[in-house]
Every structure is written in C-alpha cells, then in structure tokens.
Amino acid sequence: MFDDLMIPFLNLMHIIWHLNRATTVVHRRQTMSTSGALPVVDLAPFFTQDDEAGGVARATEAVREACRTHGFFRAVNHGVPPELMARALELSAAFFALPDEEKAKPRQAEGSEAPLPAGYARQPAHSADKNEYLLVFDPKIGFNVYPAEPAGFREAVEECYAKFTELGLLVQEILNECMGLPQGFFRDFNGDRGFDFMAALRYFPATEEESNNGLSAHEDGNCITFVIQDGVGGLEVLKDGEWVPAEPVEGSIIVNIGDVIHVLSNGKLKSATHRVVRKPAHRHSFAFFFNIHGDKWIEPLPEFTAKIGDAPRYRGFVFNEYQQLRMRNKTHPPSRPEDVVHITHYAI
C-alpha cells in the first residue's frame, strides 16, 4: 500500500474498518474464516494468558495460509480499540472538510531530516490518483506537524500510531514463526522503527469526466501494512485475475504484506496487487506502513533457498535503492508500461 505517498510519497495501503459484533463472536470460535473474499484471522489468542486450547498455533497457521494465498487478511480482536479507530476516522473527515488554505497549513519546514515530508499533501492535478493525505511518523522523533483543528485530532492520531506500532510488532513476530525463522530474527533484523509512517487519507468522489482511480493498482514496497476505513469502500485486491472487494467491516483491520516479506520468503508469501476505486462519496481511511531501514540488504533468506534446496528467485538489493526506483515511476513515468519498476526488477 506505499510509493504513491512517496511522491507524493510512498504507496498507501490500506486497512479496513467496519465489522459487526455478531460475526466477532463467530470469529472467536473459528480462527480463520471468510468475510466476503478475504481470509479472517482472529488474533485474540495472542492477547490471552492461557493457551491450553492451542489458539496461538491455529492463528499462526491462519496467518501463514492467508499470506501464502492472498497476501491480505482481515484481522479481528487485534488489540486496537474500535472506538479509537472510529474517533480517528471521524476527526480525519473533519480535518479534510476544512477549506484548502486551512488544510495546507500543517506542512514540514524545509531542511527537515524526515525520510518523507510530514504534514499535508495532495496528489498533483496530472496524477491518475485522486486523493489527499496527512502523513505522520513516530511522534517521539519530532518530525510531525499537525493542524490546529479539529480539536483532539493530534491525540487520536498519536494514539492510533502507538497501537498500530504494537500490532506491527506482534504481526512481525507471528511472521517470524510462520516463516520458520530463528526466534527473534525479525526483532533483530528490523528493530528500527524510525522509518515507519502513517497517513490519514481522503479519496475524492468518482466523476464522469475522469478515471476513477483513487489509488492505482500496485503492490506495497514495505514489510506490513494496516488499513482502517470508513463505510464507503473501494479497496480491492487482485486474486487469481479478478478484483476482490475488501468491504468495510466495523472494528476490523485489513493487513497485507509487502515486497520485503515477499522477497525474504523467496516468493512463498505474497505481496498482492491492490487498488482503491473511487465511489460516489468521499472515502476516508488510515494506512500504517510498518517499514524497514533504508540501508537494509534484502534478499531471499536461507530458510527459503539453500536450506531447502531451492534457488533464489530474486537478487539482493539495498531497500532504499528499490524505493528510489519506485519513486522514479512517479516523478518520471516510463513511456512503456513494461518499463515501470516492480519487485520483478530484481527477479532472477
């Protein structure tokens, strides 16, 4: 979900919001089921002290299967309070409803050392994508700029950021187990949280005059993405050649893995193509990008190559190099579609 926010600045991905309580009860009994077309994974076993029933193992297997087949899943009982997600979306909608001159005020000063410009931005008029957003980093780093209105927006954003960071650390540990890696591997390999970021987004309504891209089809270049959204819908995932809607479901979070995990697993876990289609109404969402340091070397891990007798499907690369190539797709769009850089650029 990650380089369209990169100029404007790294693709947004997407986490979903709206799950009824009746289905939540069912999810507690059944770790993985289907809500619409996306797998549903109940993370409740990771928040309980007693796991005599083997819930953690079942949930871990559900995550493994979802990442193998879809690259996406809908997380329920994930530890992020539904009322916090609802409040953040409501305040985000109030911010984006402000006059343009007010929205434009929270912009980062020139010379900032932030990996990407924090604050408000809007896709250029010539862009195929039609959205605007407010980008934030870990509040402890000091890069963020916030609007004065609406009241409580900053607090809700920072609380969401903290909860999504906790969830990212949990999902990363689950992936560590799913991938059969040494205990603590990801904790050591990806312990720097300074490159994570989150975006509050508003997608403009569909029109008859324009294409209805809210966000063009893409894969996320990062590790893990979370998305929450209002009830408008529009997020779609490509599965077996068909676009599958990730419908809004109250209280749930859409989780997808990105190209980094795809390459580390030598293609065993899927970085799925997805998009946002504009609807008749504005669509509001938050996307949180659990990232990796730009200096990290990314290549298929031995557990997926030498240790099982498989050849690497990708050559290694420095993460920041890949992000610069993806950003160039936006700043200098190739004349031929086949020249757009994807992770297949590194395919062997």
From TrEMBL:
Residue ranges of every copy of the Fe2OG dioxygenase domain listed in the record: 194-292
Record keywords, A-Z: Iron, Metal-binding, Oxidoreductase
InterPro entries: DIOX_N, IPNS-like_FE2OG_OXY, IPNS-like_sf, Iron_ascorbate_oxido_reductase, Oxoglu/Fe-dep_dioxygenase_dom
Source species, domain of life: Eukaryota
This protein's record includes keyword Endoplasmic reticulum: no
Family designation: Belongs to the iron/ascorbate-dependent oxidoreductase family.
Protein known as: Fe2OG dioxygenase domain-containing protein
Cofactor: L-ascorbate
Gene Ontology MF, one: metal ion binding
Pfam families the UniProt entry points to: 2OG-FeII_Oxy (PF03171), DIOX_N (PF14226)
Protein's UniProt keywords contain Transit peptide: no
